[in-house]
Structures are given as C-alpha cells and as structure tokens.
Amino acid sequence: MNKKISIFIISLLMIGAAAESLISAEKEVTPLESKKFSDSSSSEIPSRKVFRHVIRTDISTGDNILNLSIAYSVLWAYYLGFQWETIQEHGSFKNWYSNMYQPHFDHDSYNYNLIMHSLAGNYYYLFYRYRGHTKGGALLWSAVTQILFEFTVETITEPPSFQDIYQTPILGAVLGISLEYLSCKLLSTNYTAAHILGYILNPFALFPFASYESVSIPVVTTDTIGYRLTFRF
Amino acid sequence: MKYTLLPLIIILLLGGSATAVETESDKPSDSQAIADNNYAATKWHPKHYFAIGTGLSALASITHSEENKSIAGIHFYTALGYWVFDAVGLELGAIISFGYFHDVTITQYIEETDGSLTPHTLEDFHSLMWDSSFFWGVMVRLPFTRRTDTINLYLKLFQGYGTSVYWLFDKEEEDVLNKEATRFFSEGVLFGFSIGNIFNAFNEKTTWFLQLSVHFKMYQESLAIKDGEVLPETLSKIENRNNAHLIQISLTAGIRLY
Fold first, then answer.
1. pLDDT tens profile B127-141
2. Which among A108, A109, A139 has CB closest to B50?
3. Which of A42-46, A171-175, B152-156, B243-247 has the lowest mean pLDDT?
4. Residue A53 is part of which domain span?
C-alpha cells in the first residue's frame, strides 16, 4: 500500500514538472501572459498574473450526466483495484443488493472517517470544479457522487454509512475550497517550485479543458490616469 | 414526538414575530432602515449558505451514579442551510469534537446465572474521546433586536443522532472489559440549542459568527470494537441501563464559506 502511495506521489511530482514545462512554453504564445498594458504615450502599466477558476454557465444536463458517469466509473475502478482484498474477504453479490437497505452509523476509526473520506471528498469537489461548477454546484454533485458510491458500490462489503454520506462531501468541500485557493495563489506566482506544488494540491488544473485560466491584470495605482467609455441601454 | 415538535412550533412562532418587527417599521421615512434591516437581503442568507467553524468544547459524560468531565477539547462545526420565509433557516450540520477524560469510572452490568444484573465498576481510566454529532436544526433571528453590522442575534434548535468513540488507556488484564477491544462506541439521539451572533452581515468585510451551543446526547447502546484486518469487528453490545448521556457545551467561531 505504501509503495502504491509513493508511486502516486512521484507520478504527481512528474506530472507537475511536465505541466510546468508546458505552461512555460505556453507563456511565449499567450498574448495576455506576455503583454504589458500600454497607454497612448507608450508608458507601460505593470500587470500581474492571476490563475483563477472560471465558472461555466452553459453546463447542460448531458454534461452533468457525463461528469457523474466519469466520477462513478473512477470510483468503481478504484474500489475494484484498491479494495480487492476486502472484496474477496467480505464481499458478495448478496451483500451488494441487501446492504443497500441497511444504512447505519459505521464503527470505523477517525483515520478513515475523517481523513481518508475528507481526502476523497476533496477530489470529488476539485473534479466538479474542474468541470466548471460553482462552489455550491461542486458540493451538490460531490454529495450525489458519494451517495451513489455508498449505496451502489461499497455495499459489496459493507452497508452505507451515514457519517460517510455527510462527512465526505462536506469536509471534502472545506478541504477542496482551501486547496483550490492555495493552488491558484501558487500558480499565480512565477516560481517553478510553487507551480509544482500548486498542481500537486489541485491536479485537475493540469487536465485538458480545465475551467481555469491564467490572465494578466493591470496593476492600477492612484497615480495612474486612464479613460473609460461606457454605454448604457 | 409531541415534545420534539414543541420547540419547532415555538421557534417558528419566534420567526414569524421577527418578520413582524420589520413590517411595523414600514414607514416611508424608514425606507433605508428597512433595506438595511432586511436580514434576508444580507450576505449571510441569500437562500443557501455553508458555514464552518471551530472552537472549544467542554464535555461531561454522566450516568445515574457517575459524572466524568473532560478537559476542554477542540471541535469542528459545519452547517449547510437554506433560508426560507425571510425569517427561518433550515440547517443540516455536524459538530465533530475531541475530548480527554481522566479518572473515568465505568459501570458495567454483568448478567448472573439467575438473570439478575450485578454492577461492576471500573475506575481510574484515562480516555480520549472522539464525538460526532449530526443534526438538523431550525434557526431564527431573535426578534425585537435592531440588527446592525455587529448585532445579529439568532437562536437555533436542533436534534439528530450522534456517536462517541472512547479509547481507554491503563486498561488492566483482569478487567471485565473485553481485552481485545481497542475502543468503545456509544451512539444515541441528541438534541440541543445554539445562540449566536453574526458579525459583518451588512458590510463588505468577511462575515463571521460566534455561537454558543449546548446539546445532550442520550446513549442507547455501547459496543466494544476491535480493529479488524479490514473492517472493524463488534465484540459485544451493551444496552444503556444506567441512563448514560453526554452533555456538551461548545463555543464556536466561524465564517460563512459561501
């Protein structure tokens, strides 16, 4: 188990380093990254890079079904892959359908109920954020995912747990909000090490079509003179 | 059941009276004051909210013959809420707390051959406790108070179900308790109330709250648990025969996450 965790951490570090090189390459071709904001007299206004989440307003029912299907498939793959010994010892097809109707308060220790489930919930949350959901939407879909896991996957070995149903999405969201915030702060810097750490904290920022963007924002100070033209209809 | 519903009815009436306060002040000259005092229009309650907090708890584990108080421990508070009717918030939440008991006394009842129960007392245990209290609650802002940036009082009644896990230390071999047990698990219904205040509900600063909660947990049964290789094993189950319950007082400081 420790070997698997080590391999997982090393993989994340490698992905972080690879992503860093990709982002560095992108910097040369992204206009907003390299552009300095200029006024008419050609004096440059300094800008700062901001890495931030972008909320998708066009999430359709089909998108939601697709997102849930991806999360659900990953959970099945994880459970069959990492819990195979448990399934062999305690699992059965009879358990799978009879345990669904016997939710209870489980007797697990805090390392499972508080730590492992919070980490799992964190990844649910970050996944749905990556897919463009708001904070509330990501929490809602995390809860749906966890309910599906408790009632249709984990029942192979044990009945659904009320603690897990509540704590996984809620504590996961608290952790996810914190890590996403920290990750965005780190990815807004110009330091390679900070970028690697940022991607470790939120690996979903690396994935293609992620709902994150890196933009440059002009730093406007009180001694800056500008013009604004607005229309109102 | 009627005792459970009674607090709910009272709190709903309080909520209604809180709305009435706003209606009474509905004068043209007070239009700005109405806007400022419209609690539902503040940052705190735009329909749904997610609040988190942390603080200190004092716990007392009580039976009909013993009372064990804990050293103040830390707790974490989470609540998901939905604000309705401009006056009442419905909440689903949890308080997860930790406490340390010293000199714990435990009374067990051993069944004799004739069916009678003999109390057996175990003394001088040290125990670390992890408590999880899950609840649903009804929150109302307190009526008859003028709400400002610093005063937004609220009252909350809640009930639910919770578990307490006790790790016992200094357990001797000759103890009656199952030697293989690594922890003892008690569960039961809970009910309680909170009174709190929301700060910065109207301005642009971070909204935060202070909350004092008191809740009672009535244990229904206790289990001796052994850590299995994969899943925990239940070694024995003991019904609550000595009115064992837990009283917890918590002071929480927190923020509205969104």
1. 889 999 999 999 988
2. A139
3. A42-46
4. 2-218
Instruction: Write down the residue that tokens 């951490």 correspond to.
Output: A9
A126, part of any domain: yes
Q: Do residues A96 and A80 make contact, with C-beta atoms less than 8 angstroms apart? A: no
* Cα distances (Å, whole numbers) of residue B177 to A153, A230, B170, B240: 36, 78, 12, 15
What are B76-121's pLDDT values in tens digits? Answer: 999 999 887 767 889 999 999 999 988 777 766 666 777 777 777 7
Average the pLDDT over A41-46 and give the result: 60
pLDDT tens-digit series, residues A90-99: 888 898 999 9
Residue B134, C-beta contacts closer than 8 angstroms, at least 6 positions apart: A162, A163, A166, B93, B94, B160, B161, B162
- Does residue A232 fall inside a structural domain? no
> Hey, which residues 144-183 in chain A have their CB within 8 Å of chain B?
157-158, 162-163, 166-167, 170-171, 173-174, 177
Q: Give, for A217, the enclosing helix (H) or strand (E).
A: strand A212-218
| Distance between CA atoms of residues A32 and B138, nearest Å | 49
Of B78, B227, B230, nearest to A90 by CB-CB distance is B230
pTM score, whole prediction: 0.78
Contact A107, B234 (CB under 8 A): yes
Q: How far apart are CA A126 and CA A213, in angstroms?
A: 15
Give CA–CA dist A35/B129, Å, rounded.
57
Report if residue A229 sits inside a domain.
Answer: no
Give the CATH number of domain B2-256; options: 3.40.190.10, 2.40.160.20, 3.30.70.20, 3.90.1150.10: 2.40.160.20
Cβ neighbour number for residue B222 with a 10 Å cutoff: 21
B187, A105: Cβ pair inside 8 Å? yes
**How many domains does chain A fold into?**
1
Whether A224 is in a domain gets the answer no
* A chain contacts of residue B231, beta-carbon cutoff 8 Å: 86, 90, 157-158
**Which parts of chain B register pLDDT below 50?**
1, 8, 11-12, 14-41
Query: Any CB–CB contact under 8 A between B167 and chain A?
Result: no
Best residue in B131, B132, B226 to probe A by mutation, most A CBs within 10 Å? B132
